[in-house]
Amino acid sequence: MSPDERRRPVVTGMGVVAPNGVGTDAFWKATLEGVSALDQVTREGCGHLPLRIAGEVRGFDAESLVEERFLVQTDRFSHFGMAAADLALADARITAGAHEEEPFSVGVVTAAGSGGGEFGQRELQRLWGQGSTYVGPYQSIAWFYAASTGQISIRGGFKGPCGVVCSDEAGGLDAIAHAAAAVRRGTDTVVTGSAEAPLAPYSIVCQLGYRELSTAQEPERAYRPFTANACGFVPAEGGAMVVVEDEDAARRRGAPVRAVVAGHAATFTGASRWEESREGLAHAIRGALRQARCAPDEIDVVFADALGLVEADRAEALALADALGPHGTRVPVTAPKTGIGRAYCGAPVLDVAAAVLAMEHGLVPPTPHVHDDVCHDIALVTGTARPAELRTALVLSRGLMGSNAALVLRRAD
């Protein structure tokens, strides 16, 4: 057995900042009950834009969660990321300063798709409206995709392998895979995940070019994947962070082992080529199963990408059938994100958090806003949560620019 095979990456902590709740308890309760957080966009400066419905994180008190000196240096997406990282570390029973003697044993890997749009817009308005002397020095770093990774590592004193993944929405799963690979190579602990804040005016304008974006006016009709009335996806802010550790190291310090990161694979099929995503996603699923040494019929639940475009949803359903065989039409499939929106790179990490919680509680959460009109050959869970013996979960993600990823999680022993 190689050194890589002897080190098994596990999830020991999770932190969530989502439109339906801050913290895993609030998030899970709302997810399990199928509560929808989709509503009218209320962010300042967005009222005249055609995007009407989104998943906003409301009641988030950044001042009470992040130190002032970091608040002024960073954008809202980093505030979410830092708060979620703190929650994940506390959940993993890692206290502040715990790694001062071994700072290189902890790394940070995040994924980002939109960066710090709100901070960047504000500073550019100052540039053009008042002049260059009014632009703050942190403009050079706060908008940058790597800002969350940098700030989380600085705040925690973490000097192990650090990085940022910019690979579309699927980057959320790819970041967790990078963390797992770092653990297999010898790093004890990696804080990983993604949080996004794409609801500032500049950021929304950038998204309006996506034909997949839903501009529906009513929350209950705006995001309904796998139905004949699917009209695109609803964007959201927020995300989740998880702590991935070497299992032996985690058990030595008495940390809770919540799930095993068993397998991952990623492919690329091109921007908006949804029919081609069938083959790419199926290939990623097979690769993740192979790495996890998992048979198709061992998958107990699928957390779907659920883009909300008819051709994309059809391609996903067919990819499940291609990769899982007949089991792909029978295995329970869910898409809790229809109640909170797609937080870009943060979306699949929220699905990972939901998958871990689902395995712990033996419940498959429902798909909000979708009822009995599923028009693709999948066993979509709607209405209410479904009890089930869940040992292995498959989480899927696709990006608007063509990335596909699959992640296999196993319930902790």
From TrEMBL:
Residues 6-411 form the Ketosynthase family 3 (KS3) domain. The keyword Repeat does not apply. The keyword Iron-sulfur does not apply. Pfam families: ketoacyl-synt, Ketoacyl-synt_C. Keywords: Acyltransferase, Transferase. Signal peptide: none annotated. SMART domains: PKS_KS. Belongs to the thiolase-like superfamily. Beta-ketoacyl-ACP synthases family. This is Ketosynthase chain-length factor.
